[in-house]
Write a structure and sequence with these properties.
globular; two-stranded antiparallel ribbon; alpha/beta; about 20% strand; Rossmann fold; 7 helices
């Protein structure tokens, strides 16, 4: 099971485009509200109905945790101890993690990026590199071991394709890219 966290103020494109691609590939994804309210307002005022709440995550069944960016959404996640604990536990227990735009800063805040190849939004690149994250300039999305990162909303399709390649295989991901961008 793949879980995608939706925090108040998340960047809609960074959540919905990858979610669409993952589901087109037949990958089971549940969107997760951080509160008891399944309706989560994104940073651009688009409200999305999450599938489950944070307390309903089945950690044992989790294959990957996805963290969309968006300045307000990332600040909301950073200020939620249960979210930060989930990220830290996921990392410690070798779950796959994906983060786009400002969301890699959550991993940086936990001190988890030392020696890892990462892309992120320029607004958080100093925070990511300060803890040893190895920034990959000019790359829209990258994968390093159990971590997939994406640069920003404009690269949400590339990020989603990289997620499909990681969870399934590169050939299927590239067929999907051809289908959505003929």
């Amino acid at each position: 099971m793949v879980y995608m966290l939706l925090a108040e103020g998340f960047e809609e494109t960074e959540a919905i485009a990858p979610l669409d691609l993952l589901r087109r590939a037949g990958i089971e994804v549940s969107t997760v509200s951080l509160t008891s309210d399944l309706l989560v307002a994104g940073g651009q005022g688009i409200t999305v109905k999450a599938d489950i709440t944070l307390g309903q995550i089945d950690f044992g069944a989790m294959e990957m945790l996805i963290l969309p960016g968006g300045g307000k959404g990332v600040r909301t996640m950073a200020g939620a101890p249960a979210v930060m604990d989930l990220i830290a536990r996921s990392w410690k227990e070798d779950k796959k993690i994906a983060a786009i735009c400002a969301a890699p800063s959550l991993l940086a805040k936990l001190g988890l990026l030392d020696g890892w190849s990462v892309v992120c939004h320029p607004s958080v690149s100093d925070a990511v590199s300060a803890v040893g994250g190895m920034l990959q300039p000019g790359v829209p999305a990258t994968r390093d071991r159990k971590l997939v990162t994406g640069k920003a909303a404009g690269y949400a399709i590339d990020f989603g394709i990289e997620l499909v390649a990681f969870l399934q295989d590169r050939e299927k991901a590239e067929k999907l890219r051809s289908a959505v961008a003929p």
